[in-house]
Amino acid sequence: MTLTNHSVLETLHEIKAPGRPHSLVEAGAIRDLEIDGGTVRLVLAVEVADPSDIERLRATVEGALQGMDEVAEVELRIQPMMPMAAAPRPPAPEPETWADRIPGVRRVVAVASGKGGVGKSTVAANLAHALALAGHSVGLLDADIYGPSQQLMMGATDDPMGDEDGKIYPVEAPGGVKVMSFGFLVDVDQPVIWRGPMLQKALEQFFGDVHWGELDYLIVDLPPGTGDVALTLCQNVPLAGVVIVTTPQDVALIDARKGLNMFRKLEARVLGIVENMAGFCCPACGHVEHVFGSGGGARTAEALGVPLLGSVPLDPEVVVGGDSGSPVVLARPESASARAFAEIAERVAAAT
Ligand SMILES: Nc1ncnc2c1ncn2[C@@H]1O[C@H](COP(=O)(O)OP(=O)(O)OP(=O)(O)O)[C@@H](O)[C@H]1O
Ligand SMILES: [Mg+2]
Questions:
Q1: Which helix (H) or strand (E) segment is 303 a member of?
Q2: What is the pLDDT of residue 318?
Q3: How far does residue 209's CA lie from ligand 1's centre (Å)?
Q4: Is the CB of residue 160 below 6 angstroms from any atom belonging to ligand 1?
Q5: Model confidence over 121-139: pLDDT tens digits?
Q6: What pLDDT is stored for residue 91 in this prediction?
Q7: Could you tell me the domains of the chain?
């Protein structure tokens, strides 16, 4: 077996963060993870009550990683942080916005598109996994009221659990991303007509009643177009940014522009566009053939006046990954599409 971020994260998943019930991965302690042959370079940011915690943690982590067959060397840096309890904090005001109710969620990033079927959910699922593989703690909220698809795409087949306080626990998908979806609330085979207040209430629940825990990123998969969900979200949650997904055809540009203008009007920060299904990735050799010519994504981004976060080829593996609950970033990390998603995640992380 070769050494991957995924296998290292699995090992780190077994180790508890000092003084916490969560693992290092869940507590968002992994700040940097790099694999170079048999060498693992890792930066951990942890809250420590006692300096001896650092040495204890160092010994545990180094021991666990050295125990992996493929690991030859471990370069570990531990950044101690002041425990939350000790850090001076202003008195907590009464919760007013939805965001106040998810204090552990550091950034909310929405994935949107001007029209349906361009691969928004695919991008959201792979972006979530790519961020998780880069060491972030990540949640994915499927807010597509018309056609929730993330349970299937993320392989999150269990039902979410609740507790006696009315909190709902998101389902942890293979790979560690926490998933919550409208699909858990409704029968996905039945049409549901959401009216304004009902929709508002259901969306609010996802922020108020779901126990997301500590997350570096909450990725929100929006329904297509410029509807109520995007509006309600922008009005109630400060977004770290919006990713707009589009396809290479010129007609898609019109829809992308429409979506973009809506978010601009709502004063949400658009991080850039993802050009999806750009060029065909040959299943036999992995070569990407630019059927529509290359550079379209960059031109589209320029025409829209936003950065190009990346171009993902049309790749049968992406479909297989989505249908099997194991997105291509996890299932085929070496493929051209997975690499494109990893790059998109890097740009999103750098911009937020
Ligand atoms: N890069 C890609 N290569 C090949 N197929 C893709 C790619 N991206 C998405 N698809 C496929 O296209 C279909 C639509 O993708 P997806 O469901 O992600 O789109 P969407 O924009 O979320 O759709 P909707 O608007 O219905 O929510 C899926 O079958 C998916 O597997
Ligand atoms: Mg979708």
A1: helix 296-304
A2: 95
A3: 29
A4: no
A5: 999 999 999 999 999 999 9
A6: 67
A7: 5-81 (3.30.300.130), 100-351 (3.40.50.300)
